[in-house]
C-alpha cells in the first residue's frame, strides 16, 4: 500500500519516496529485538522529556545543550540494513553517518519539526505498527498539508523540497512502534576527518 503515491507514482510532496515491503517479517522482528536491547533513554528537548525512547549512533544532537558531537559508531548489526537503505535513497552506504533508534511506547508521538540543518538526507524505516507521517508547509493562506501512511516494514526518504521546506510529525498512538532513521550530513554539518 502506497498511500502517498497516486496512480502515476507521483509523490504528494516532491522529494518524498516510499516503499512498503522493505523488510521481511523475520527481519522486522530481529530489528525490534535489537532496538529493545540497546540503551534507550527518554528523548529530552530543553526542559521537556518525551515519552519516546531513543539511542543515536555515529552522531548525536543534544537538544538540552544545543550541541552536535560524534558518538558510538553504527554497530555491525545495523550495517546491512543501512546499506539497503542507502541503495533505496540512491546514496553510498558511507553517506549515512547517523542512525537513530526510537521506540514509541503507547501515548508517544513526535511533534512538528524539521530535522536539524546539519543533516541532509533522512531515510526512515517503520517497524511494529502503522503510523501516519503528517506533513505541513507554511503558505500565505496558512498551511498546505499532506500525509503518508507508514506501514510496518516500510521505508521512506526525505530529500529536497519535503526535507527543507516541509515539517513532519507523527501523532501519538495507542500501540507501540519502532523506527530506525539514517541521516547524511549536509554541507553545513561538521567535516569528518
CATH architecture: Sandwich
The domain count comes to 1
> Which radius of gyration do the C-alpha atoms yield?
16 Å
Q: Give the termini separation.
A: 42 Å
User: What value does the average pLDDT take?
Assistant: 87
User: What is the overall number of helices?
Assistant: 3
Per CATH, the class reads Mainly Beta
* Fraction of residues in H or I helices: 10-25%
Please report the total strand number as a whole number.
13
Q: What structural class do the secondary elements suggest?
A: alpha+beta
CATH superfamily: Alpha-ketoglutarate-dependent dioxygenase AlkB-like
Percent range for β-strand residues = 35-45%
Strand order of the largest sheet: 1-11-8-13-6-3-2
Residue stretches low in confidence (pLDDT < 50, at least 5 long) are 1-8
Structural shape = globular
* Biggest beta sheet summary: 7 strands, antiparallel
**What is the CATH topology descriptor?**
Jelly Rolls
Order of helices and strands: EHEEEEHEEEEEEHEE
Main features:
44% strand, single chain, alpha+beta, 7-stranded antiparallel sheet, 3 helices, Jelly Rolls
Notes on the protein architecture:
The protein has 193 residues and is α+β, with helices and mostly antiparallel strands. It has a single domain (16-185), classed as Jelly Rolls (Sandwich), CATH 2.60.120. The chain has helices at 25-36, 79-89, 160-165; strands spanning 16-19, 41-45, 48-57, 59-62, 67-70, 96-104, 110-113, 119-127, 131-139, 142-150, 154-158, 167-170, 177-185. The longest helix has 12 residues, at 25-36.
Amino acid at each position: 500500500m502506497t498511500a502517498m503515491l497516486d496512480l502515476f507514482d507521483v509523490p504528494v510532496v516532491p522529494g518524498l519516496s516510499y516503499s512498503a515491503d522493505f523488510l521481511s517479517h523475520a527481519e522486522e522482528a530481529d530489528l525490534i529485538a535489537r532496538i529493545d536491547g540497546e540503551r534507550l533513554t527518554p528523548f529530552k528537548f530543553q526542559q521537556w522529556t518525551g515519552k519516546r525512547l531513543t539511542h543515536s549512533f555515529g552522531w548525536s544532537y543534544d537538544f538540552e545543550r544545543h550541541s552536535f558531537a560524534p558518538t558510538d559508531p553504527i554497530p555491525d548489526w545495523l550495517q546491512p540494513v543501512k546499506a539497503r537503505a542507502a541503495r533505496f535513497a540512491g546514496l553510498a552506504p558511507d553517506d549515512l553517518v547517523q542512525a537513530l533508534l526510537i521506540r514509541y511506547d503507547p501515548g508517544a508521538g513526535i511533534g512538528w519539526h524539521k530535522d536539524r540543518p546539519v543533516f541532509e538526507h533522512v531515510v526512515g524505516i517503520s517497524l511494529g505498527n502503522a503510523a501516519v507521517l503528517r506533513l505541513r508547509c507554511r503558505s500565505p493562506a496558512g498551511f498546505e498539508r499532506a500525509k503518508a501512511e507508514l506501514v510496518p516494514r516500510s521505508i521512506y526518504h526525505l530529500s529536497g523540497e519535503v526535507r527543507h521546506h516541509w515539517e513532519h510529525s507523527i501523532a501519538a498512538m495507542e500501540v507501540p512502534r519502532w523506527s530506525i532513521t539514517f541521516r547524511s550530513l549536509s554541507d553545513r554539518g561538521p567535516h569528518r576527518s
